[in-house]
Amino acid sequence: FWDDRVPGGPADLWRILTCRALCIGIDANPATNPHMQELRQKLAALHNLPRPNFAHQAYARFCETWNLVLPHAAQMRLEALLGPHGGTPPALEDFIFHEWLEDIHDNDIAPHA
């Protein structure tokens, strides 16, 4: 099972880790994994920070938990399954958080000359 939906915001980064772990049979369900429970709580607690601070601090927590939930051997298994970067967290710059995108409405779109 692979969930390729983008996280809504940094508070949803835990979903990426959960999905990667499922690919190799590791339990990363926040309901049963204490590391994941702690990550969700920490991400929720950071939510009121300004966007850049929130994103960077949330990403740092995400990476810390990644290494706890997916030790080196698990990261190697993910790389074998998903490719050379499958075992490492995606870079923060690679995320597009849809909660942060501005809505585009039909009346905002104009043809280019």
Descriptive account of the structure:
By secondary structure, the protein is an all-alpha fold. The longest helix has 19 residues, at 51-69. The protein has four helices and no strands. Helix 2 (34-46) runs antiparallel to helix 3 (51-69).
Low-pLDDT segments, ≥5 res: none
Order of helices and strands: HHHH
Largest sheet entry: none
Gyration radius, in Å: 16 Å
So how many helices? 4
Mean pLDDT over all positions: 85
**Structural class estimated from helices and strands:** mainly alpha
Q: Give the overall shape, derived from the CA principal axes.
A: globular
What helical percentage do the residues reach?
A: 40-55%
From the N-terminal CA to the C-terminal CA, the straight-line distance is 45 Å
| Proportion in β-strands | under 5%
Tag the structure with descriptive keywords:
single chain, 113 residues, mainly alpha, 0% strand, globular
Which helices and strands occur, and which strands form pairs?
Layout lengths: L13 H10 L10 H13 L4 H19 L2 H11 L31
Give a nutshell description of this structure.
It contains four helices and no strands. It has 113 residues and is mainly alpha-helical.
